Amino acid sequence: MSGGTPQNRSREQREAMTAHSAAATRVRTGGPKDDDGPKILEHVLGWTLVVVVAMLVVQLGLL
Question: Domain limits of the chain?
Answer without folding.
Answer: 6-29+37-60
